[in-house]
Design a protein that fits this description.
The protein has a single domain (2-158, 185-211, 253-269), classed as 3-Layer(aba) Sandwich (Rossmann fold), CATH 3.40.50.720. It contains nine helices and twelve strands. It is globular and about 55 Å long. It is α/β, with parallel strands linked by helices. 40% of the residues lie in helices and 17% in strands. The strands form four sheets. It has a six-stranded parallel β-sheet with strand order 2-1-3-4-5-10, with helices on both faces. A two-stranded parallel ribbon has the order 6-9.
Length: 286
């Protein structure tokens, strides 16, 4: 298969690139935002005409959650309009379209893991833009596969894990929110999941949820990071009102993953095992 990956320089794009050698039977094309800005409709259309892929994995996204509150137009351009363009072009060329979305499409008031058909209600511009991207993808290409995920991190790029490691080394103590509950997702596991979906003989379109197994707070996550790197820095639990951000985070955004497990035979790793793997990779990179 010819597989196109957009957003190649992001965490997920890099995680997919790391998997490339495991799939010598496929040819991959990794395009960064500079190579193919997905919100330029004509560029996308011309690219597909010249080199039509069998599968398009859209790992491109505007992910600056707080900045999106003041950059609404740009967030919608990348996370919504561009997704609609890609979905429509994929449909026109018979390309399987796999798009990644977010737990931020929910409002966080649930008391159980969110299922794919639960009512949405984003609290932020970022969440609104991602939800609109889902809507456009399904409307313009009903064969789209959308995978919602949460709390993504990787040994590359900027993310919670790398920020906490840095702070643990710099500060006498750190405060981390303990009343926002979710599930971390190691980008390498998400990439492996996406490849299994891409290779599936039978494509079953629709919306799916994927993350690592477990249900934790950001505080729990930070405590485990500190333990794994052998840090003696104190991690203090704080409440959301003590840590004000421009964009409101959902209080609870755990995703129910049964559908993707049953449909595509995806295996789920615990968040602890995936975190251990990532921290080893960070150590090896230094």
């Amino acid at each position: 298969m010819k597989i196109l990956v957009t957003g190649a320089n992001g965490q997920l794009g890099k995680a997919l690139r790391q998997l490339e050698e495991r799939y010598p039977q496929h040819s991959f094309r990794f395009l960064s935002r500079e190579d193919l800005p997905i919100h330029h409709f004509e560029l996308v259309r011309n690219f597909f005409k010249a080199d039509t892929p069998d599968v398009c994995i859209n790992a491109a996204a505007y992910t600056a959650v707080d900045r999106a509150e003041t950059e609404r137009e740009l967030a919608f351009q990348v996370n919504a309009e561009a997704v609609g363009v890609l979905a429509a072009v994929c449909r026109a060329h018979g390309t399987r379209f796999i798009h990644v979305s977010t737990d931020y499409v929910f409002n966080g008031s649930s008391d159980r893991p969110y299922r794919e058909d639960d009512p949405t209600g984003p609290l932020t511009v970022y969440g609104e833009s991602k939800l609109e991207g889902e809507r456009q993808a399904m409307e313009l290409n009903p064969d789209s596969i959308i995978i919602r995920t949460s709390w993504v991190y990787h040994e590359t790029g900027k993310n919670f894990v790398k920020t906490i490691i840095r702070l643990l080394r710099e500060k006498p103590y750190i405060g981390v929110v303990n009343d926002q509950i979710g599930a971390p997702t190691y980008a390498g596991d998400l990439a492996a999941c996406i490849m299994k979906v891409a290779e599936a003989e039978k494509s079953v379109p629709g919306i799916y949820h994927f993350s690592n197994q477990g249900e934790i707070s950001w505080y729990d996550f930070a405590v485990e990071i500190a333990r794994l790197i052998g840090s003696t820095t104190e991690v203090r639990a704080i409440s959301t009102p003590e840590f004000i951000t421009p964009a409101q985070r959902p209080a609870y955004s755990v995703l129910d993953k049964r559908k993707i497990v049953e449909t595509y035979g995806i295996e789920l790793r615990s968040w602890q095992r995936s975190l251990e793997h990532c921290i080893r990779a960070i150590d090896q990179a230094h």
